[in-house]
Amino acid sequence: MTPLGHRRLILTRHAKSSWDDPLLADHDRPLNTRGVRAARELGDFLASRGMEPEEVLCSTALRTRETWNGVASAVMETRPEVRLVEALYHASPDVMLAVLRTATAPTVMMIGHNPGIAEFAAMLPARPPMAPEFRRYPTCATLIVDFQAEDWLGVKPGDGSVMEFFLPSRRG
Known about the structure:
Layout: E1 6-13, H1 33-48, E2 55-59, H2 62-72, E3 81-85, H3 93-100, E4 107-112, H4 116-123, E5 142-148, E6 161-166
Parallel strand pairs: 1-4, 2-3, 2-4
Antiparallel strand pairs: 1-5, 5-6
Helix pairs in contact: 1-2, 3-4
């Protein structure tokens, strides 16, 4: 839970997806085995730190929905409202910010795609994390950033404080 007057964003790029079926539309690509494992690892990470989302804004792509399912499989105390948002499929940072501003819960998870999510992550904090992989924002990368704001309309790029930058292990 976030304190009154605070907003927390958990910004996640979808986990690793499968390219096994070349005839499958991009929107319909599922997670591969490594991606399923990484999504669960992210869920365990969030639960262990008490950073469960209260609202989820998720692209409609299969790989983003499966990423959320893996995260949600961790023992989570909250049962967030999940909104599938077509506009988040390969969204630009401006679209992502507009969608975020429609959120109502204090702690929101947004699951999307590169390159937009990497650009969005880079513009949010006052000081980005020093992690070498941050600018690339690999699959399942997650930035947790807090804002001093009464609601999501008050969130401005460059005003966030980085709480964590998570990368799943690369095995498999």
